[in-house]
Amino acid sequence: MTSSPTALPQFKSPTETLEQVFLGVLVIQPSPFCNINCDYCYLPHRTSKRRMTMEVLGKTMERVFESGLVGPQVQVLWHAGEPLAVPLGWYEEAFSIIDQFPQAKEKIVHTFQSNGTLLNQKWCDFIHKYDVEIGLSIDGPEFIHDHHRKTRSGRGTHAQAMRGAKLLQENGIPFGVVAVISDVSLDHPDEIFDFFVGMGIDGVGFNIEEVEGANDSSSLAPSPELRVRQFLQHVFERNRAAGFPLKIREFEIARESIIDPFSNRGSDGTYFNLETNPLAMINVDCDGNFSTFSPELLGQSTADYQTFNFGNVRTDNLFALTQHPAFEQVYEDVRAGNQRCAKSCEFWNVCGGASPSNKYYENGSFNSAETHHCRCMIQMPMEIVLEDMESRLGLQK
After folding, report:
1. 262-291: pLDDT as tens digits
2. How high is the mean pLDDT of the chain?
3. The 3-state secondary structure of 42-90, one letter per residue
4. What are the C-alpha distances in Å from 260 to residues 264, 265, 272, 273?
5. Residues 58, 48: Cα–Cα separation, whole Å
6. Is 195 exposed, middle or buried (0-12, 13-18, 19+ CB in 10 A)?
7. What is the predicted pLDDT for the residue at 20?
8. 281, 76 in Cβ contact below 8 A?
9. What CA–CA distance (Å, rounded) separates 1 from 157?
10. Is 352 buried (19+), middle (13-18) or exposed (0-12) by CB count in 10 A?
11. Burial (0-12, 13-18, 19+ Cβ within 10 Å), 253
């Protein structure tokens, strides 16, 4: 890889960007409530049982479809709380409202990201009925998972999560897993690899424990990044030796980026990053407030900007956010941060500036470049995969 991009991307003004963008992901928060209490969670209001009204949901979809931003497909991600903590009947009514919009059934893909503890047969029937995609959050074997993912009374949640996973498998429902890599994970790559292979799942994505939102410190902070690299390297080698039975998101993304470096480029040749392009990702909280950029910013307090909420679906169309003073400042800083990345980082074409929320919470500013998160989750997997390819092709010096 070259040490810097051969040509810097030309960042567009908000107006120019919005003329070309399609909405890729719509994050809807049915409720901020979560039935468990992971100690690394970034959500500040996860004990609140507030719930989105059908009026707000209907208005959300009206704003989306009137915007002209709906392209070939929109992923509706029910998130920012435990989605299954909201009654199934709420979703029956919600999906019925959504399906009334023209082409909604053809263009919208519904996705749940769940802790899995509340799954039952009725939920499985619902998932089948609406062809809902689902992912589970499981950190590995019990002694790792239960270290951080507990109930409010301090009990582990692994058994309930595995019961939910088994129920999905019995119903023929495919699912992937997101595993948070924390302090306790780094010394146990073999146990984690063997566990996920033994589950027989489609794939796993690793998220390092992040400093973000309500989680203002990380158990990885005292750990040198060398330990993260050793963990990832060992898991990769175990997977390769076994014939790659496990699709690991970070390595799959790296491999695709190396084999086809233009797969994630826009028509102008620049990487299209949903989290840095206004309105490519819209996040709506249970009260109808909406934001763009990283979903982790939704509802968070900020001392540096007025707010990360740029409007409310009850009163504002989606394009109104471009006139919000807070949006203008956030976007200016996000763009400046992306310029820093483009000028300084050889991995620019892989991530397009990575996640603004990581920059803000790690570096204290959107107008910044490299983060611990991008070093561990983007750079290290790219280096590992590239080194493996070079070794197998006899290209290493």
Report:
1. 665 555 555 678 899 899 999 999 999 999
2. 88
3. CCCCCCCCCCCCHHHHHHHHHHHHHCCCEEEEEEEEECCCCHHHCCHHH
4. 9, 10, 15, 17
5. 22
6. buried
7. 52
8. no
9. 43
10. buried
11. buried
Strands 133-137 and 175-181: parallel
- 3-class DSSP string for the chain: CCCCCCCCCCCCCHHHHHHHCCEEEEEECCCCCCCCCCCCCCCCCCCCCCCCCHHHHHHHHHHHHHCCCEEEEEEEEECCCCHHHCCHHHHHHHHHHHHCCCCHHHHEEEEEEECCCCCCHHHHHHHHHHCCEEEEECCCCHHHHHHHCECCCCCECHHHHHHHHHHHHHCCCCEEEEEEECCCCCCCHHHHHHHHHHHCCCEEEEEECCCECCECCCCCCCCCHHHHHHHHHHHHHHHHHCCCCCEEHHHHHHHHHHHCCCCCECCCCCECCCCCCCCCEEEECCCCEEEECCHHHCCCCCCCCCCCCCEECCCCCHHHHHHCHHHHHHHHHHHHHHHHHHHHCCCHHHHCCCCHHHHHHHHCCCCCCCCHHHHHHHHHHHHHHHHHHHHHCCCCC
Tell me the C-alpha distance between 268 and 260, whole Å. 16
What is the distance between the alpha carbons of residues 132 and 99, in angstroms, rounded to a whole number?
Answer: 14
* Amino acid (one-letter) located at 187: D
Please compute the mean of the pLDDT values over residues 108-113 and round it to a whole number: 96
Closest CA to 303 of 329, 282, 324, 271: 329
What burial class does residue 262 get, using C-beta atoms within 10 Å of its C-beta: 0-12 exposed, 13-18 middle, 19+ buried? exposed
Rg (CA), the chain: 21
Q: Which amino acid is at 354?
A: A
pLDDT tens digits, 214-243 = 666 777 776 678 999 999 999 999 999 999
